[in-house]
Amino acid sequence: MKPRTALLLLLPALAINLVAFLAPMANLASYAFHGVSPSGAILPGLSLGTWAALFDDSFYAELILTSVLTSLGVTALTLLLAYPLALFVHRAGPRTKNLLMVACLSPLLISAVVRTYGWLVILGDHGVIYSVMHALGVEHPPKMVFNQTGVIIGLVQILMPYMILSLLAGFGRLDPAFEEAAASLGAPPWTVLRRVVLPLSLPGILLGFLLVFVLTVSSFITPKLLGGGRVFLLATEIYDQAIVTLNWPLAAALSLVTLAIFGVTLGLYGRLARAMEQA
Amino acid sequence: MIHRALIALLFAFLLAPVALVFPMSFSADRVIAWPPSAFSFRWYIALFNETALRQAALNSLLLALGVTLLSLAIALPAALAIARGGFRGRDSLMALLTAPLLLPTIVLGLALLIVFAGYGLIGSWLGLAFAHLLITLPYALRVLSTALATIPAAVEEAAASLGAAPGAVFRRVTLPLMTPGVIAAAAISFLVSFDEVVISLFVVGPKLTTLPVAMYRYVESRTDPLVAAVSALLVLFSLAIVLLLDRTVSLRKAIGK
Amino acid sequence: MPHLTLSALEKRYGAAAPAVASLNLKVAKGELLGLLGPSGCGKTTTLRMIGGLIPVTSGQIDVAGRDVTALPTHQRDMGIVFQNYALFPHMTVAENIAFGLEMRRTPRAEIKPRVQQALDLVRLPDLGHRKPRELSGGQQRRIALARALVIRPSILLLDEPLSNLDAKLREDMRTEIRDIQQRLGITTIFVTHDQVEALAMCDRIAVMRAGHLEQLGTPHEIYEQPATRFVADFVGRANQIAATRDADGTIRAGALVFRGPPGPPGQVTALIRPHRLGFAPAEGGNTAAGIITRVTYVGDLLACTVDCGGVSLTVEQPTLPGLPTPAVRDQVRISWRIEDTLVFPAE
Hints:
The complex is a heterotrimer of chains A (279), B (257) and C (347). Chain B is mainly α. Chain B has helices spanning 2-25, 42-49, 51-84, 90-98, 105-119, 125-149, 153-161, 166-177, 179-195, 198-203, 211-221, 226-255.
């Protein structure tokens, strides 16, 4: 293929990338570093006004901290619940395994709105949990939705398929012979898990942690609908600033903060992954 | 025994939210309540009269179809150039073209909102198409590149040695061999576009909205079983596409490949 | 006039040593030329340049007096049989064979009988309706050959056509390819790393090493009069002895002293083929006393390792009934003809 032909074939894809990705992202970044007139036009000259406002208000520091901590908690919980499931799927026979894989991953094909709505049915004021607890004699079942609890439960379930996928990829190098060898050397099942299975699946755990953490930080639909406007996270705040308050520079600055968190996470992941390879 | 029960419980946790919309969609109650006091088709009938949702569904369908065709038309040549171009920096180019998938959709949506607002693209078909192509193209490109990578170079060289010009090689050998990849790329592009909500939220307008956005707005303001009926239909729809995909691809495997 | 001429053909990738360096070759019409060498010697690169699959860095390729260097593959009219068959998996065997004819706009009425002829030629007349994946490796190989031959190419290029076949099938295919090539009188370039294959099939062999042509000659010349130590070592097996040569042609390796062809004195490597060494005395030849240290029986051959004054030599004898079988620690005298001693300057 001649270079000119190749360029011609690439041109439409590059054009879309430029128009819908590179230019808007560059523009977004510039919004965070410029003053903006009341009419919404960017003022010439660099300005750190938005950043000053952002650092002045302790609300934002708290927002960022809450976002990161919530995401870490959600990720840890997802790992805890997904690990036994993934291990079970990994050890199943080939036919059952396929079926279980489909069951684990099929939620990915369904809109986040639908899955979040499903949680409203379960956690809602007259939902499944409420009626079960009521039937068991609990007078005032705790409120499960439109608060932090609901958001965390929903996010854990919605992100579980990604964790399972990463863990299964990590289990790839887990030859059953290793476990058999450990058992033949006298290790009881729990020790086999702790000394053989867990260390070998560490790369998968790390990958899943990265993926789910990053997805939690940027998730919007679930915290918005299950939080009922009472849970404030980075993504929901970006949306509110952009659509409700129309403070685009602030929304842009918060977006850059989110990207920075992504960058730091990716960097940490790279270091850990490399360290693990050398170990 | 405890082990099995735990696994079953985890599976239930994973699948319950989707499974429960089916019984809920047949509820006869005015609000979400479990268990439903009686079952009926009232919310399916209500759905039939909900013109705004119906229009949004039609919009989403048209948009997804258009975006799918455009994705294939744009990603296929690009995948070919990257796989067979033989120029330097193909890995970096691939990274650039698939980069949008790495960034949070909320940031991409905001970036598009700011730019599109200035050009009157908010609430327009063109704006929505750009927004969806932004995320369907990387998927299509990846799937098609993988499909191309599995075709051994020698098969194309053999066709050339037998006298086939580059166009004929593509038509007679490359394209037929990558058909499963093209079908998969189309299905993924369609589903991604049809389900996309966060970016759409930023670029839809009062006159033009998509089904996921309309559902999101509905759930935000009201909690009745209407959305359960829509959800049930959507789940069946996704299932049908996946089954269709599975059939066509494995059918092709049975005849050819 | 040669049918195929390669003039100063060269292929470079970046600043590294050339993959093929200033290669000159002339191939006569109807000749089967083997490109032989270890992997990485440039033989496949040469074949791919001839076929137009990769561009040349410099030099020229002529076919029947016409410069084809700049022509793309699809205009070169060469039949190529690829190492891994490269049959089109989505077409039947008949469609595979018909492909080249369709590309040449052969009339439909003519395609069918020619496809059948090609199938008959490779002795698989009834497999036209099958898919390639339903065929065995040997059958796929033959269909690939039929597909390349049906277009009546000016040159046939075979890239390791017998690799991945089991030993028995290999020998059958060897004679079959040679038969078909002789019958059609088609000029053929044959790439292989297997010296037995090259010796058995080719009219002439070009031995390549690190991008250079090491020796060009008939199988007999390559085997009996290797031009370099590399050729002697790569083609056939040989005992290698590091030694010094005196001015009168006497060769000394420790306590082992023997005669070889005369040449400049100095450090040399002597090579002696194991089957040219024997236990029976040779008229006016070299002899050496030694002790057998190992005996290996491989059916048709008996290989004895003999320690001759610190130099270890392998002697190969055909196994004949009635011959005494040597045993370890036997004292023996081995002998060989002077002209069977190949001597090259030490590297």
